[in-house]
Design goal:
Chain lengths: 541, 309
């Protein structure tokens, strides 16, 4: 059997915390060959990033310690290697790209300088480095590379920055590229481009690609083999097809089962508007920031009990629309009628009353919950603001009721938000929104920051609440798959415009606009067969 | 990984009464415990010192001029030596604690209150209000504080109240600018928007959501400011407003000891040491308070952890 370019054997990593030792990675073994893509798939806290950090010698010690195992690069042990030798391998032979390229590019140097610096640091002559930088930038698809070499990181978009990071990583022709969630922060259409670029470059250079991701779709699209991690252990490994089609471990089954976008379409109350009057009627709402039009002539209707999804990439104006409807931002023009009242012409008193009826659940519960308040205080703040709703004596019981409704024990009311996991925090945020007995809840990317299996649970909860409390949702998302399972109707937005509106089934099966189609094509299904089929179609075209 | 999360099944600490909980947290941080004790002693000196040792402190003894410290030949009160008029230093430090604490405490509290209030207003309300407040702060900052003191001295008579006023006004911009800068950032945070969506009034948002986040920073600045004010007060007293002998403060004692630094260093050193110890205790205690007030950090001070701040 040929030598593996990277071989990790029985790796265990421990972190020493005040609560004692935490085994972040337990007895993990995997290997990577030249020209191969291995995906490490896992949810947050599964130990996938720690494993990669161990390979790059990036674990902070203390508190982290590698307690057992070996990491072999071309049969040479990386652990215990002298620092100087190790440094020559890191970056030169094993390169890494990260989730957030902006955080890894120095804002005060031009990108050309930064790429060239990596080359010169590893012994390339300065004049050659410049030429090679240009070549690299062209290779990763930066248009006008010669001119843009002298630009600063903030002058590039997120996708371009990730391309620059890739250029930097590839500058020294590494044998191994470790990509830690390389596309998680990017829009789907950009994600597709970056993944394709990585594949092309891999085919050209024959490097091994170690892809760390939580996204089943990404794995299905690019990986040859996959290692599934849960709670620090490898639960399953094999070719992507084997694992996706015949998962043997219960965790893998659960994970693949939780992937959104496979269920049938919602057909309840979506074909014909139920009731004579829509709950919310938005008419040609515009919002401008200076000369920049963030929102142009947005018009739509929301029926009682309906889930209306607004889908779009970053900068499409979907969040601006939500903020405008909530009067967090003042619209430049247009009207929005909620139950017959114009939201934009409310007196302060009416606006205050309206706040009870329309609530919002934010993207990141870590930020939307005040870290200095207990869960009980967070939820009962609603009644402190609207004292007519509930006398203070009943707050405690109602908090317990609401917590039970979102599936949390009542004694959690005494805890602070940081003591919960991401999914639990979002449940708390939902409980807080429900405290005012709203009729309409605007969910701004409410599940985007959550792991797939948690995402499925929160969506299920939202669906249950809709039935039990007859709520309506305005559900803002960038992820089409989530919307497919959940929404009755979909609005697609691009660059501040509403591009297409239709029932979920219509949008997904027969999209009219080219942009909607591009968006659908770019989103990755958690199924290697579907992705292979799409790829075939793409190559024919 | 750096921030451990409490697992769901981790037992919740039993609810004890608040005072016991605070004392337990104080006990876990030994530095803060010592600091709290030192401050307690200083406060006691300030409260009862002048009544207890006032007479000893004021009694001149020309034969004991600049008596050296650590000698018991003249009794316990001369343990830290005597000043140029032969007054024992230790009782004088004890007596001076009252004026010093009163002036520094009142100035810091006043500057912090006014600065923070204006900062909250400037950070949270309209651009015009903010501009007006900030330009006012610029004026105060560009105005030499000694000149301001002279003007006040010219217009008003010298008293502790006027001294506090002058000191506080010159320190307001520091709190104002810090508060405003933090408010500008915090007001954009998600939880503030979430509160707004619920219909929370501006007053509620500022007091319940923004102020608690800004406060630890302000308290930290205040403790550092304490030392500055103790020394600044002495220079103002030198100009003739505020404290006049035979009244005494630590800052004044340092200033009076300065000419004798070459042959009687203890005149300036011991009151200076009192200032340093007070400031250090305050800083330690404020560091502890910052941790204790932050739910995310509080675990460091709760039972079961080895680490302290």
């Amino acid at each position: 059997m040929a030598e593996h370019v990277l071989d990790v054997r029985g790796l265990s990593v421990e972190f020493h915390t005040v609560y004692g030792r935490v085994q972040a990675v337990k007895n993990v073994s995997f290997h990577l060959d030249r020209g191969e893509t291995l995906a490490i798939l896992g949810e947050s806290g599964s130990g996938k990033s720690v494993s990669a950090s161990a390979i790059m010698n990036l674990i902070d010690s203390p508190p982290g310690y590698i307690t057992a195992g070996e990491i072999l690069y071309n049969s040479e042990s990386l652990l215990g290697m002298e620092a100087e030798k190790r440094r020559r391998i890191n970056g030169q032979k094993i390169a890494m790209i990260f989730q957030d390229p902006l955080a890894h590019l120095n804002p005060v140097y031009t990108v050309g300088w930064q790429i060239a610096e990596i080359l010169t640091a590893h012994g390339v002559a300065a004049s050659d480095a410049r030429a090679r930088t240009l070549e690299l930038m062209q290779r990763v698809g930066i248009v006008d590379a010669k001119e843009r070499m002298n630009y600063y990181p903030h002058q590039f978009s997120g996708g371009q920055r990730q391309r620059l990071m890739i250029a930097m990583a590839l500058g020294l022709k590494p044998d191994i590229l470790i990509a830690d969630e390389p596309t998680t922060a990017l829009d789907v259409t950009v994600q597709a481009q970056i993944l394709r670029l990585l594949e092309e470059l891999q085919a050209e250079t024959g490097m091994g690609l170690l892809l760390i991701t939580h996204d089943l779709g990404v794995v299905a699209e690019v990986a040859d083999r996959v290692v599934v991690m849960n709670a620090g252990e490898i639960v399953e490994s094999g070719t992507v097809r084997e694992v996706f089609k015949k998962p043997s471990h219960s965790y893998t089954k659960k994970l693949i089962g939780a992937a959104p976008g496979k269920g049938g379409f919602n057909r309840v109350a979506c074909d014909t508007p139920a009731g004579p009057e829509p709950m919310l009627r938005v008419e040609s709402v515009c919002k401008a920031y200076g000369n920049f039009m963030a929102l142009r002539n947005a018009s739509f209707q929301l029926m009682h009990g309906e889930t209306l999804a607004i889908v779009g990439e970053s900068g499409s104006g979907k969040s601006t629309l939500a903020k405008t409807l909530l009067r967090l931002e003042e619209p430049t023009s247009g009207q929005a009628h909620y139950m017959g009242r114009n939201l934009f012409a409310l007196s302060p008193k009416d606006l205050f009353a309206m706040r009870r009826e329309i609530q919002m659940v934010f993207q990141d519960p870590t930020q939307s919950l005040n870290p200095r308040m207990t869960v009980g205080q967070l939820i009962s703040e609603a009644w402190a603001i609207h004292p007519e709703l509930l006398p203070a004596a009943k707050w405690k019981d109602r908090v317990a009721e609401l917590l039970a409704l979102v599936g949390l024990p009542a004694d959690h009311a005494r805890r602070y938000p940081h003591q919960f996991s991401g999914g639990q925090r979002q449940r708390i945020a939902i409980a807080r929104a429900l405290a005012l007995d709203p009729k309409l809840i605007i969910c701004d990317e409410a599940v985007s920051a959550l792991d797939v299996s948690i995402q499925a649970q929160v969506i299920k909860l939202l669906e249950k609440l809709r039935r039990e409390l007859s709520l309506s949702y305005l559900f803002i998302a960038h992820d089409l798959a989530v919307v497919r399972d959940f929404a009755d109707r979909v609005i697609v937005m691009q660059g501040g415009n509403i591009v297409e509106t239709g029932s979920t089934e219509q949008i997904f099966t027969a999209p009219v606009q080219p942009y909607t189609r591009a968006l659908l094509d770019a989103s990755l299904a958690a199924d290697p067969d579907i992705q292979a089929e799409r790829r075939r179609v793409r190559e024919l075209a | 990984m750096s921030q451990p999360q409490v697992r769901d099944d981790a037992p919740l600490p039993a609810e004890r009464n608040a005072v016991a909980q605070v004392m337990a947290m104080l006990y876990r941080d030994k530095f803060a415990l010592v600091a709290a004790f030192v401050l307690l002693v200083i406060v006691l000196c300030a409260l009862v010192g002048p009544e207890l040792v006032g007479d000893i402190a004021a009694k001149q003894n020309l034969r004991g001029r600049n008596a050296p410290p650590f000698s018991f030949s003249q009794g316990w009160s001369f343990i830290l030596g005597a000043d140029a008029l032969g007054r024992p230093i230790l009782p004088r430090i004890i007596v001076a604690a009252r004026n010093t604490m009163l002036i520094a405490g009142a100035s810091v509290a006043f500057a912090m209150f006014v600065g923070a209030s204006l900062g909250l207003i400037a950070g949270y309300t309209s651009k015009i209000t903010s501009q007006i407040i900030m330009r006012l702060a610029d004026v105060i900052m560009s105005f030499p504080s000694l000149l301001l003191a002279v003007i006040v001295l010219y217009m008003l008579e010298s008293s502790i109240f006027n001294l506090v006023l002058v000191l506080a006004i010159t320190r307001i911009p520091i709190y104002l600018r810090t508060t405003r800068a933090e408010v500008l950032e915090i007001r954009e945070r998600m939880f503030v928007q979430a509160a707004r969506v619920m219909g929370a009034s501006d007053k509620r948002i500022v007091l319940r959501h923004i102020l608690p986040v800004v406060l630890p920073t302000l308290v930290t600045i205040a403790t550092l400011d304490f030392a500055y004010i103790m020394l600044a007060e002495s220079s103002l007293s030198f100009l003739g407003i505020g404290i006049q002998p035979p009244e005494v403060t630590w800052g004044l004692m340092v200033a009076q000891g300065r000419p004798y630094l070459a042959n009687a260093w203890w005149l300036a050193l011991f009151p200076g040491l009192a200032i340093v110890i007070t400031t250090m205790s305050l800083t330690l205690l404020s560091g502890w308070m910052r941790t204790a007030l932050d739910p995310v950090q509080r675990w460091r001070l709760e039972a079961g952890s080895k680490a302290n701040g």
